[in-house]
Amino acid sequence: MKPSLIFHIDVNSAFLSWSALARLEAGDATDLRQIPSIVGGDRSTRHGVVLAKSIPAKAYGITTGEPVATALRKYPNLTIVPPDHALYHRQSTRLMEYLSGICPDIEQVSIDECYMDYAPVSANYSSPETAASIIKDTVFDTFGFTVNVGISDRKVLAKMASDFQKPNLVHTLYSWEIREKLWPLPVSRLFLCGNSSRETLRKLGISTIGDLAQTDPRILKAHLKLHGTTLWNYANGLDDSRVQPTPAKEKSIGNSTTLAADATTREDAKKVLLALSESVAGRLRDSGQKAGLVCMEVKYNTFRSVSHQAPSDPPTASTDQIYRLSCTLFEDLWDGTPIRLMGVRAGHLSPADEPVQLGLFDGQAPVSEKQQKLDAALDKIRGKYGKDAVKRGSLIDSPKG
């Protein structure tokens, strides 16, 4: 049976593009995409990392993930804007809903990228390349930001094709094109080939994807274990995974955020915890589940990570209960070091309507009917008007005098 074709659709510099559009809509005369600019961090403290960069910033050697202080040394006049994760979530939701209207077989894999199965809509277009170009152009006409579209008969190759020259372009990387288009590229361009793997491959004399593809896979496995086999498969275009529009049932639900500026006080950290708890609890309720375990993670500005978990008895999907447990875990974990990232995750999931049996001495009472109705009402408002339609008072910055 002939394999179906797969599109990988990726927003070009998503966070920066979405921030640029929001500023233009607010009356800003400067388009962040046209000047050396980044999203992330804080100029005054020089803390944080680059979350997204403009093409002019890339020309100065600025890279995603590097410290803001390093980026400023490369270009001192760099424009820096803070991230707006609520905005990014709204833009992502709008885009995925739009693409789902074009083809129902969409697999979202991150906030700014998804796979699309071309087969269900192939009769509507003269060719896959034509379909991809139309999708790319209509996304820009509808939303004002650009996407790249990669096309292939293999999922991993579609992903790598979309990462070829940017922005606003369509590229193919069919399995029969890998010798011409993929093998001449450096191994750094191979999907999932990180810094550590690249260094190991360099020591083995492997510099291009073609070198890797033609290396004995047993050698790669000896030096990189199973990851070596994965890289060899990808270099040879071997990937039989399909687009999965209905995700597998989640074993846990979580959310984390890298802070624009390091949190140095309990008050600042707990505001972030509350926002994360609201997000996780809302997703639990949306999926009709409750959690019997809450995990809280902290990454310090030294890049040391710590985490701790505690049971929720009874299982819950309540924002307040998840937040209270997260705060307790935070107090156990935090040693006063400035915090760069925080995360909250709910595990041991069970159906929301599963009955709960309480003992005489259970320490936690079930969520009251009043609280459940309040959570449901807030979910309904946010679902209709957006995530920021209702905010807790503690999440609104008070004026400082």
In short:
This protein has helices spanning 14-25, 55-58, 68-74, 85-102, 128-143, 155-162, 178-181, 195-203, 209-213, 217-235, 266-286, 319-333, 369-385; strands spanning 6-11, 37-39, 52-53, 79-81, 106-110, 113-117, 147-152, 170-172, 253-263, 289-300, 305-316, 339-351. The chain is an alpha+beta fold and 401 residues long.
Helical fraction equals: 25-40%
Question: Which strand-content bin applies to the residues?
Answer: 15-25%
Rg, alpha carbons: 23 Å
Mean pLDDT: 87
- What structural class do helix, strand and pairing data support? alpha+beta
**Sequence stretches where pLDDT stays below 50 over 5 or more residues:** 358-365
The dominant shape is globular
Sheet with most strands: strand arrangement: 5-6-1-7-8
Compressed to H and E, one letter per element, the order equals: EHEEHHEHEEHEHEHHHHEHEEHEH
- Main beta sheet, described? 5 strands, mixed
Distance between the termini: 70 Å
Please report the total strand number as a whole number: 12
Tell me about this structure.
With 401 residues, this protein is of the alpha+beta class. The protein is 39% helix and 20% strand. The strands form 3 sheets. It has a 5-stranded mixed beta sheet. Strand 5 and strand 6 (113-117) form a beta hairpin. The radius of gyration is 23 Å and the shape is globular. Mean pLDDT is 87; it is low at 358-365.
